[in-house]
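Changelog note: in this version the structure field was regenerated for every chain. One regenerated record is shown below for reference.
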Amino acid sequence: MRVRTALVTLAAGILLAAVAPLAQAGEADGLSVHGYGTVTDDSTVTLSGTYRCVDDSEGPVFVSSTLVQGNRSAGIGGTRAVCDGETHEWVNTSVVKDPAYQPGAARVEATLMQLTADGMGLPTPGFLATEESDVELY
């Protein structure tokens, strides 16, 4: 009976070892936002963070970001992602005027998005990861 239990335990361990990489593969896409950004005198806003994606074979992947301060919201650039399973830095920059952002507290909404072709050949966004984070603009 002990031999049978040992064999079942060994078989279960082998099965888990084989399945574990597959379970982690779907969780490999990720995104973060640094807790700070900059706004210059000419209203240039720069935001940054890190991302990781695994597969861009179905279409290009981008990191987009939106900055929210008070009742003001604007898209801040977009970065083409390299999907090789490694962690990379993203930096998005835009000039935003009327009204301009000010140094101080703000919020960033970042998205890791993949464009894929639908049945008619039109690009359709697929969201791989999202992150919302409070930031301080300097």
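Spot check on this record: The radius of gyration is 21 Å. Residues 2-25 form the longest helix (24 residues).
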